[in-house]
Amino acid sequence: MDGTTGTGTPRARALGAALRKAREDAGLGLREFARKMNIPHANLVRWEAGTRAPKPEDVATVLATLNIDGAERHRLLELAHDASAPNWYGVGISDKLAALLEFERTARRVVIVSPLLVPGLLQTSDYTRAIMTGAKVPINAIETRVAVRMGRQKALTRRDPLQCQAIIGEQALRHGFAGREDHIDQLRNIIWLAELPNVEIRVLTLDAPWTPAVEGSFILFEFAEAGPIVHLEHHRASGFVHDQQEVRTFFEAATTILEATLSEMESIAFIDELATEMEGQAP
Predict the structure, then answer these.
(1) What torsion do the CA atoms of 112, 114, 115, 116 make, to the nearest 10 degrees?
(2) Residue 120: partners with Cβ closer than 8 Å, 6 or more residues away
(3) Is the C or the N end of the chain the one with fewer CB within 10 Å?
């Protein structure tokens, strides 16, 4: 049982995170579970890290050993069957949200290009709640989703924090769908986060020249020991790009966009001026 498939693909990493959680939920340590499975400890380490994906038959054995069946077994076997695919597109958010959380947990650096919305890692709970309400998320699911998004932000303040460069469009900073007070709080929150040594904020103004940002948002994840991944998100659909030639085009796009932004100091001054302007307006 040493066969493996995809190397560091988005599905392989999502599968690895799910297998690690299942093992931990069962109260089993890595070495203990490897002995139980009669496989080398190193194999299990690679599987859970997503640097290598186990074959579907190996996953089936893991799930049987952990007594996992039903819908969860079907979901993980589907991930295993497609683990070698370099890119991952489609409708549905549960698996991809789990993958996104794993990438934010394990990434060394992230570059976010967000022309129309404040990036999730920088959002306040009220701003997130306004997004969920506007998107007509079921009322009984909103608070759970808000809590998950707020939990993601711990990546910026953990002991070994995620290095974050966020490029935010002026339109995102001006769009007041969250309401005046909540919008001001959101702008002030960005300024506060920019004081962290691992967070860099850059503003792309409306009078900037054409850049690939007009084609939509994307997130670049860089890892210490694995290839980079791009995350794309649109209305009720998302995807991950791992094909390195395609990923390279996103790095080039990010560089072009960055060249058109305000400097760090200018960006924070711009956001501060906008917040102050809004504070001075009549309610």
Answers:
(1) -170
(2) 128, 149, 152
(3) C
